[in-house]
Every structure is written in structure tokens, then in C-alpha cells.
Amino acid sequence: GRPGVHVRRGRLWCVQSRAVRAKRSPFGPKRTMRPAPKSDASTLGRSRSVVARLPARTASLTRSKFTGLGARPGAWPTFPRNRRSKAARKVSANESMDIGGRVEGTSGAELWASEGEPHPLGPSPVTRTADGATSAVNFAVVSENASSMSLCIATVAEDGASAPEILHEFPMRRTKNTFHVCVHDIQGAGPSGLVYGVRVEGEGGWETAHRWDSARVLLDPYAPLVYGRRQFGIRDAQEGFQQRAGSMFWGAFEFDDPSLCSFDWGKDYAKPQTRWEDTVIYEMSVRLFTSDESSFLPEGTRGTFEGLRQKIPHLKSLGVTCVELLPIFEYDELEFRRFPNPRDHMTNVWGYSHISFFAPMSRFAKDGGGPARAALEFKELVRDLHAHGIEVVLDVVYNHTAEGGDTKPYLLSFRGIDSSMYYMQDPDAYEQMLNYSGCGNTVNANHPVVTNLILDSLRHWVEEYHVDGFRFDLASALCRNPRGTPLRNPPLIGAIAKDPILSKVKLISEPWDCGGLYQVGSFPNWDVWAEWNGKYRDDVRRFIKGDPGMKSAFATRLAGSADLYNYNRRKPYHSVNFVIAHDGFTLNDLVSYDAKHNEDNGEESRDGSNDNFSWNCGVEGPTSLEAIQQLRVRQRKNFHLALMVSQGTPMVLMGDEYGRTTAGNNNTYGLDRRMNYFRWDQLEGDVEAKDYHRFYAGVIHYRRGSPLLGRSEFLGSRDITWHESDWENDESCFLSFTLHGEAMGTRSIYVAFNAHDYWVENSLPRPRDGKRWHRVVDTNLSSPRDFDAEGARGIDGAVYRVAPYSAILLEEK
User: Which residues are marked as active site?
Assistant: First the structure.
């Protein structure tokens, strides 16, 4: 199920530009930089001014003449603040202009510009003052089709009472397809001082593939930080909101703060580097995890990176080894409120709508701390998760951005810089933007410039923030050419798989898109990519709820989906198994509702998936009938046990460990309210929730402790025995098997699932001499008898009665 709207995420910053292999950080230089000029006559880069080539003494004399006009030797032409004549707008970036002006920066210094360099992309420090402060910053932006571009430097109001005010505009020199300029005497700039954007002009209107608008200042795709509104979901003056046009987001950078630029990862710091076969993934939202008041966090800490950091002990006790964070790139959570519409009451809490590919979500900083603070706190979160042995995988949305389609577009960045380069388009169609994302546009990911952009973004998150992997939203959309035709060997996917940095982290695809391309088991993988296994979800749901004819499919999914992944050098763990994910029912709702109830979303419940394979166990929604309540708890246990005994990589959803419900809404992307939050009061105060959490966490820890349940190779005939003689019986909803532990020097395990509505007198396989079966799990029993990690209860006799809609796990010892 896709959000009935868009998704967002989109800004970027170069981590390791292909053209410039110098390793650098967006927060602090990691390369040798030129010292600050000792003479005012010195210039940076290749200045076009003749003064720069004069002897120092002559240049010094000449400078007095130029400064009388408000210019610097070697200075690049500028547009004074907010005054751009028609003549100025028509001046090419390749032409010289004898205008200029001294512009006072935040430190009282005079801003001036030289032409700069075309690499690296984004902002980068070039020189420093004697005390180490950045004194000059180079800016470079790519556009194949723009005719001119200018850099807008703006000042930020200290009290946030107004939007940034453009201080100066510098025309940018063009070298091939890159526009660039270097701004000097910029010390003191950063999120608390200066921000920037670009103004772009080009030929052709909407009858072409271009979407130019020189009245709009655009976000640099490589900006390392983004400056916008301060508090999550609360409009303020500094975002400069205008109805329909939307909010303004500015590029920002921080090169001088040692706490961020030289972040202390710790003396004994090391990444967990958990093996795939030992991984248990916990999918979660930063915003929703701690926003509820029952988290007992300070109000300014709820729903932030710091809020999550303070709840790490919960994740540790649960037993998960990896958090998969819903999008944490900068996005506009109020995108649905730009103009009156049926969804203008909603706030985007999932974040699938980037405006940047490089910047952490600034409003995930505690107390509205801003972009640099968000970057610092995200690093602190990753560091502390790693200290507890928990990896960090980011859910990334490179398939589309927040800029929408040609109907009610949102001009923020890529669209105005070079729409035909960044987006897939059909120039012969009335609405030219191709939409394989369900959100109005599709990123042209296999265009060389865009491919490098995405690669740089990914490397940035690995090298700067130390993340351990990525889950690629609608990854099949990244497998299309500029006109939308599927590619057998998409360049971007192959480049990621072969990259010396990216190939060493966890790579997970969502192997489908909204254009009908479904690649479960066939996603281009180079034996590196794992996949969300949608067939696992569907087959397991159908068997557990008692659908006929599902026994063989269920067995195949339990055994690692060899029909999908057992080829070349692929492994069982390349199947990311899940029953529940963010876009769908919670586990509690899966057993409580037959149909979705999405009325709160404003689309008359038309949004969200209709193919849920759910069963309400007899009553739709909440009920006071004890028998149905008990059945629902059993079914939740059955689903969880099936997931944890399956070969492959299990993934669970935030809140399922206590029974979180969203009242039957299976598409809660825009609901920033208590019904969608993680309820700490229920986890810690409700007896039934605590009992279920005990079972849930216990089974996770049991899986991690058993070498039989996390295999690196597919099962063979010596590894497993299926106790089944009639696979063709469509009416049979009972399945049992034994995982043999002799060859691995461990205890054998017997598992049985009964999806019938009656008891089954089940004959147990004969244990080895001197051994007998001991009960670890019986989902029909109440807590604490439903799970006993030690298996203290021995089974007498050769028959075990398995209750309706229940499952058991026995150990031989």
C-alpha cells in the first residue's frame, strides 16, 4: 500500500565525488586545504580579474581603486540584495560584469566572490583563517539545460521571527554542465548565520520537458544540511510559507563546529557488523516511537533522534539486532497543507517524500535545535545503538521526491534546476512526468548525473554517519530507463552492488513499484542485494488464518523460499521475511479486521491496500467476547512464531511487541496523533500487553540462540524432515517438521502449526535413544507457560494434542 499521496526526501551533499576522489566531510575538511590569503590581493581559484595576475605591490595599489567601487580584486560580479534589473537577469554567467558591492556577513566581514571550481559538488570549504575558521566556500551545482544560475546568500534571523533575507546574489560560472562560484570572507556562516540557494533560468516553458521559474530560490541537491521550519508540524515565520507555493527550504552547512566536524565516536567504538544470518530487523519510525506523553520524555525530546536514543534499552531487551528507520532525510511534513484539499488535515509522519538526499531531518533535533543539531544527535544515536550491538538501516526513497507531478507541483529543488535530467518524462504525453511511484513523479535514477548523485548520497550516510545499510523504497522504479522501460541490468543497482564502500553494507530492495513491475525473486542483485519478500507475507498470512491449499506454499516460505532465491550465490538470508510492515495493518489489526478503515485519511477509505489477507476472528474491531480475544492473541503468537522459525532474515514492526493498534487504518502515513504513536503506557502498564511482550521477546532471543534457525545455506534432506504424506490435500491446514541438530552439535527442534478450527491429535516423531521432547512453545497456553526457553516440561507419550489455531515448538534433549 502506498500513501494516497506523495512521499518526500530530497537533498544531497557530496560524500565522494567521482570527479574528485579527495575524501571530505560536509562538516569538516578531510583534505589538505590552501591557507587563508596573507594579502588582500590574493584570490582563490582561477580568478578572471587581471588584478590577480599583477605583482603584489601593483595589485595592492590597484585594489584601492577597485574598493572605491565596492569591489575586490579578482571578485566575481554580484547582484545587490533583492535588486535584480532586467539587464542583470539577462547577463550570462560566462560574461563579465563590472558591478559589485561589499556585503557584510555575520562576522562583519565583506562577502565577495571568485569563479570557483566545478568540483566537488555542493558547498565545500576552500580556505581558513589563522584561527581555523572557514573563510571561503566553493559552491557547485549541475544542470545540463539551464542557461544561467546564480547563488543566493541569505541571512537567518536569530530569533526565527522572519524568513531568511537574501543578502546577495552571485552569478555562477559555467564549466560544461556545472555552475560554480566561490564566496570569500564567509567566516561565521552556517545554520546560525548564512543559508543559501540557487536561482535558475533556462529556455522553454511547460510545452517542453523543463520547469524553469527564476522567481523561486531552489535547494542545492548536494546541501549537507537543510534550514526550514523549526518545530515538527508547526508553521513558523522562518519557513516563508505561501499557500500553494509552499514552504522555503535553504541549504546550510557547518564546517567549524568541532563537536560535529570532528565527532567523537569513542575510543573503543566499532560497528556491530552483524552477519546476515544473525540479523533480526525492527522497522520503526523516529517520530512515532516516542511522541506519546507516556514515553515520559521531556516534550522537546519526544519524536526525535534523542528520544529514540533514550529508549535503546527497550530495543536491547527485545532482542532485535537492527533498526530499520522510516525515512529520516529532510522532508516537509506539512506538504499536504499547501492548499485546500481532502487531506489538508494530515501531517506526514512516515517521511516518504524527501526534499534532500543528504541532510538529516532537521525537525528530529530535540527542542527545535535545527539542522546542525539534528546531524549531531543522529550521530550520537548511531554511536549508542552500535554500542548496544544494534545496527542502523535507513529506509531511503530515491524513486521520487516531494515535488509532485504536473498537477499541483511543489517546486523545491530538482524540478527547477533541471527537470528533464532529474525526472523520467514522456514529452509526448499531456502530463509529461512519469509516475511509477504513485506520488506524481519518478526520479531518473539511471541518468549518469543522477546515478552519481545517489551514489554520493549513499556513501555520505555510510562514511559521515556510519549507518550499516539501506532499504530502498519501491526499488523497481530504479530499474527503469528515462522513458520508463524496465532494464535487465540497471546501471545504478549494479554500481551500488560493485561499489567498494556500498557493497559492504546491507542492501535491501522493495522489489516492486507502482507501475506494475514486480520483481520478488528476480530483482537484479549481483548476489549482494536482499529483498523484501512479499510472497512470504502473503503465503504465511493465508495459511495461518486457515485458507485451504496453502500448506505447500507455507512450507516453502518456512524453509527460506528456495524457489525464489536458491540460484547463483544467493542465500536464504537474502529473503527478508515479514508478516507486518509499516504500510499495512499492525499485527493486532491483522487479526481484528477483515477490511481497512481509513476514513481518517480524507479519501473515503480508497487509499491503502485492499489485499490484506486478514481475518477478524469473528467480530470486526474491538470486542468484549473473551473467546475471540483469546483467539486473536493465539493468532498473533502463531504469526510471530512462524516468522522466527523461518529461514531467512526476519523483520518485525514497531509496536507489535505489545499489540499496537491503529483502529483498522492500514495507511497511517499522515496521522500524527496518539492512535498512531507507540504507547508506552500500554507496554508497561497493561497486564495482557506485558504477557504478550514476554512471549514476543522470548521467541526472538530463542531464535538468536539456535543455530538451526538462522542458516547461511539452504536446507538439505539431512537438515529437515517434513512430517507430511499428502501435500496435495488442499483441505489440510496442519503442518509439522523437524530440524535436525545432530550434524551441528545442537538439539533438534520439532515445530507444528494447526490452522484448523479443531484439535489435532498429533503423533510426534520418535526422539533419539535416551532423549525425549520438551515443550518450549505452545501458543494455546497462557503466560508464562506459553514460552519456556529452558524447555523444562518434558512430553510423555508419543502424541501431543494441538489446539485449534495454535502452534508448538519442542526441543529434543
Answer: 473, 510
